[in-house]
Fold this sequence. Notes:
This protein is mainly alpha-helical and 284 residues long. It is 51% helix and 8% strand. The strands form two sheets. Strands 1-2 form a two-stranded antiparallel ribbon. A two-stranded antiparallel ribbon has the order 3-4. Helix 3 (105-114) runs antiparallel to helix 4 and helix 4 (121-139) packs across helix 7 (191-202).
Amino acid sequence: MHQPGSNDRVCGHVAIEAPASQDDVDTWHEAAGAFLLHMHSGLSFAQGGRLQVAHEDFIAGRTWTATFFAGAGFAPELPLQHFLNHGPFIEALVNGFFEKGPLNEGYATALGWLQLPTTFDEVRFLSAMTALEVIVDTQLPKTEKGGMMKKAEFRALRDRLYQAIDTELGVEPEARDIMKKKLEDANKKVLSQKIKALFKHLAVPTRDFDDDTIKRLTGVRNEIVHRGAIPDRNLIWREIVLIRELINRILMGAIDYKGRYCCYVDREHERTFPDLEIFPPASL
């Protein structure tokens, strides 16, 4: 008989001690909470599933405050790190917090989408794609989110197009309004452009993700959203794995991680980041 594994396969604790010279307890407590949230998000990605926090203890002077949390862990799925190799990843997370600041809230939101329980692969794909879009949108600098044209140039083009629509007598008034509203979004960058911009910003290697592959992923998303299925369901796990690889690389680039990680593109194996060389198997 097959016995299901426990969701809570990882256990441990993180302890932080304030310096003796610390006077402002509330400020320190808030900063410590931000650090713990940062570590929790990063380690959840490494684990490939939600890490349940049972309780939090805060000791200040002679007061001990214990906060207990309801909930359960989430079974690991495509973990970023081997469970015996968390050390280097933890070190990168710690250094990343103090050098660049905490992971933004987009990662915590993305985790929720990645850990959405479902038996439908199409839902798993869409939730992973949503997680990717959240991370790209929150991680990409504002300077890279601008339109494809300068605002002034686009407004001039938009006004000419408005005029052309208004002078087209064969178009119904309602249809004209719809066309004009669609033009408002015509200058926004599409997801594939944002992904490439983020890769460049974080110096993330683009191997396995040429233009055709990125466009295919967005095309599959559109097929599922508009038609409820894709032409070849047998390939959907290939796409799910690619999205998870995209997210993992963005995370590793964000914390400047360097070292081994678990990759599932083509097959399950270990690579080194950022050079993406396949790690040679251990000899017996």
